[in-house]
Amino acid sequence: MAGITYPAYSAIPLSASGLAKSGAGVLGGIYVGTSTALTIKVWDSLTASGTVILETTSALTAGSFINLPVAFSTGCFITVGGAGTFTVLVA
Questions:
Q1: Would 67 be classed as within a structural domain?
Q2: Whole-prediction pTM value?
Q3: Which of 20, 35, 76, 80 ranks highest by number of CB atoms within 10 Å?
Q4: What CATH number is given to the structural domain containing 23?
């Protein structure tokens, strides 16, 4: 379609809390690889503070994909509850 552009996302694999990207960007989605009561909280921050972008309230299922896109301005920091592996798509 004319006039629509889509960003190329970088795939950032994580299994613990951490910074997916610093600076402004777009969170395109999250793919869950494995899950043992895995929950995540995504912050527009360089640490686990500030504005919450996304918070899961129930355990995520392995093989699921959270389709977003949502913009962030400071950074994309993710905290983890439970255990599991997941891939964050950021641009």
A1: yes
A2: 0.88
A3: 76
A4: 2.60.120
